[in-house]
Amino acid sequence: MSTQPAAKPSTEAKPAPKPRPAATIILLRQARTVREGIEVLMLKRTQNAAFLGGAYVFPGGSLDAADADPRVLARVTGLSAGEADARLGIPGALAYYVAAVRECFEEAAILLLRDERGNPLDPDRAARLARHRNDPFLEFIERENLFIPAGELAYYGHWITAPGRSRRFDTRFFVARAPEGQEGSHDDTETVHSMWVRPQDALERAARNEIDLVFATQTTLKDLSRFEDARKAYEYARAIPEVVTNRACRALGRDGERIFRRGDPQYFEIHWCDPEETGTSSYEILPGVPKRLDRLVTRLTAPNPGAMTGPGTNTYLVGTDALA
Q1: Do the Cβ atoms of 194 and 43 come closer than 8 Å?
Q2: pTM for this structure?
Q3: 85-117 b/e with 16+ CB inside 10 Å = b?
Q4: Distance CA 257, CA 100 (A)
Q5: Helix (H, G, I), strand (E, B) or coil at 242
Q6: 260 with 271: CB under 8 angstroms?
Q7: Beta-sheet pairing, 60-62 with 297-301
Q8: Ramachandran angles phi, psi of 322, nearest 5°
Q9: Which residues contact 256 (CB under 8 A, 6 or more apart)?
Q10: Mean pLDDT of the residues in the chain
């Protein structure tokens, strides 16, 4: 048995940059062709974008400081601050709902807002207001006396960009029914094309390399492609009891650096032994080679691989000088 410990993450390794808070909105509507099913709105990011250039995405972006402005939050309806915090599991969660609605307007020219009576906007009024998509959002909703129906947004997903990208985002995904009569459009700045598309069609186009979809978008489309009815898809999103966090991670091994996602067996251990996301942990279980999992726990795997033991029987040593 080797007495050489496994390589430990360097104390000088640089932690991954902290992800920026962000919100994304998935708009659903019933398909309007002879083909049955649902459609989602997707936007193509400009090829020169610093993040996900050329990819098709859902409307969304970083939170602004103004998204938590008390004057904005006073115009949120259908969801209290406490309810939002409990649903997302963080303080100040209402700002994510605001950001989702704001980004939907700025990027897609679709207003999920309500008038002073709580009614959806008339399509003609929404079309006239679209030219204000670049106005400061707070000034816009105060001037037009509009309100943010946060209670109608279903919290659906939580994705954190993998370490190694130039920009990282801690993004909350929401699902909403598209307002009747609003088609939306790209902004010709951050986004250069827009389309309503069936989830399965988008996946098939990506498989043919006609469009680019990142992993989180593909996973979302696969999940929603099960539904033929937009209302049922929306109700499914609302009924999710607890949204899990998908935080991809990097690690090293015989095949070089790899990225691991929540469904991979190595995922949770990598997060355990590399909480700073330096990417220097190992994704391999090597018999006879101790692996430090955290400050107090080291695992030693015996060289007895098999159907019942996997790579080998694991023994966990707990402590520093005195061990259990």
Answers
A1: yes
A2: 0.86
A3: eebbeeeebbbbbbbbbbbbbbbbbbbbbbeee
A4: 34
A5: coil
A6: no
A7: unpaired
A8: -90, 130
A9: none
A10: 91
For residue 266 the two structure tokens come to 């190595």
Phi-psi region of 312 (alpha: psi -120 to 50; beta: other; left: phi over 0): left
Nearest to 88 by CA among 18, 23, 22, 172: 172
Residue type (1 letter), 1: M
- Label the pairing between strands 60-62 and 76-77: unpaired
Beta bridge partners of 249: 260
Evaluate whether 214 touches 52 at the Cβ level (below 8 Å): yes
**pLDDT tops 80 at residue 93:** yes
What is the tens place of the pLDDT at every residue in 1-25?
344 444 444 445 666 678 999 999 9
Q: Using CA atoms, how far apart are residues 158 and 173, in angstroms rounded to an integer?
A: 6
For the chain, the 3-state helix, strand and coil shares in percent, each to the nearest 5, are: 25, 25, 50
Q: Tokens 């978008």 map to which residue?
A: 217
> Which residue has tokens 């406490």?
82
